UniProtKB/TrEMBL annotation:
Pfam families: Peptidase_M24. The gene is map. Binds 2 divalent metal cations per subunit. Has a high-affinity and a low affinity metal-binding site. The true nature of the physiological cofactor is under debate. The enzyme is active with cobalt, zinc, manganese or divalent iron ions. Most likely, methionine aminopeptidases function as mononuclear Fe(2+)-metalloproteases under physiological conditions, and the catalytically relevant metal-binding site has been assigned to the histidine-containing high-affinity site. It comes from Neisseria leonii. This is Methionine aminopeptidase. One of its GO terms (biological process) is proteolysis. Removes the N-terminal methionine from nascent proteins. The N-terminal methionine is often cleaved when the second residue in the primary sequence is small and uncharged (Met-Ala-, Cys, Gly, Pro, Ser, Thr, or Val). Requires deformylation of the N(alpha)-formylated initiator methionine before it can be hydrolyzed. Its cofactor is Co(2+); Zn(2+); Mn(2+); Fe(2+). GO terms for molecular function: initiator methionyl aminopeptidase activity; metal ion binding; metalloaminopeptidase activity. Residues 12-243 form the Peptidase M24 domain.
Length: 258
């Protein structure tokens, strides 16, 4: 697969789609409280994408087996691709909500961590370090840098904090397709891998485990959990490589913060 360099017109559409993904996460945040189910969260996201934003939830029926819901909700030791269900969230849970909206032939993809009520200091530290890991990866993005530079930056932050980086799942190019080249690993060596060029758009979305990096995939074919049942966290932004560095396309419109 070759990397698609986006035209100025495509970049404008991707800015819009990135904003819509971030708006959906802004919208859902106040609903994340003890007692709500992830199925209720999924229904709210589904309706918001369609009825408010005029788009469509790209995860719905995606892949093989077809993904059955409109967003991913990964609770506690679930690394990624958690399928919404009827189990109520409880005080102290941590939750990643991953949304992807499709509209006018383009995609916007982002995820955030949410605390359910009051969480432990250890869980908060994992959330904070994972965000720091993502931001370190983003800070490495500029023309002439390499994919290895991004991975190395993410890995260094996580491992210096005593955590491990999931290696089986990665960031990805995005545009007219949900998943495009390149694959963006969250571990690696400086100077290795593809060189970055202006007009590339891809996600950086490190999955960081409190314990060991090893995982297993449940029988549903989607849900990925830590093998040792330790907590896992993930954040995801979409970035555009610019002439001088990068632009985050999925900054929260509500707070202005990445």
């Amino acid at each position: 697969m070759t990397v698609i360099i986006k035209t100025p017109e495509e970049i404008e559409k991707m800015r819009e789609l990135g904003r819509l993904a971030a708006e959906a996460l802004d919208y859902i945040g106040p609903f994340v409280k003890p007692g709500i189910t992830t199925n209720e969260i999924d229904r709210l996201i589904h309706d918001y994408h369609i009825n408010v934003q005029g788009g469509y939830p790209a995860p719905l029926h995606y892949g093989n087996p077809p993904y059955p819901k409109s967003c991913c909700t990964s609770v506690n030791h679930v690394i990624c691709h958690g399928i919404p269900n009827d189990k109520p969230l409880k005080e102290g849970d941590i939750l990643n909500i991953d949304v992807t909206i499709k509209k006018d032939g383009f995609h916007g993809d982002s995820s955030r961590m949410f605390a359910v009520g009051k969480i432990s200091p250890q869980a908060q530290r994992l959330i904070d370090v994972t965000h720091e890991s993502m931001m370190a990866g983003i800070a490495a993005v500029k023309p002439g840098a390499t994919l290895g530079d991004i991975g190395h930056a993410c890995q260094t932050v996580a491992e210096n904090a005593g955590y491990s980086v999931v290696q089986e799942f990665c960031g990805h190019g995005i545009g007219r397709s949900f998943h495009e080249a390149p694959q963006v690993l969250h571990y690696g060596r400086k100077g290795q891998g593809m060189k970055l060029a202006p007009g590339m758009i891809f996600t950086i979305e490190p999955m960081i485990n409190q314990g060991k990096r090893h995982l297993r995939i449940l029988a549903d074919g989607w849900t990925v959990v830590t093998k040792d049942r330790s907590l896992s966290a993930q954040w995801e932004h979409e970035v555009l490589v610019t002439d001088t560095g990068c632009e985050i396309l999925t900054v929260s419109p509500a707070t202005g913060k990445p």
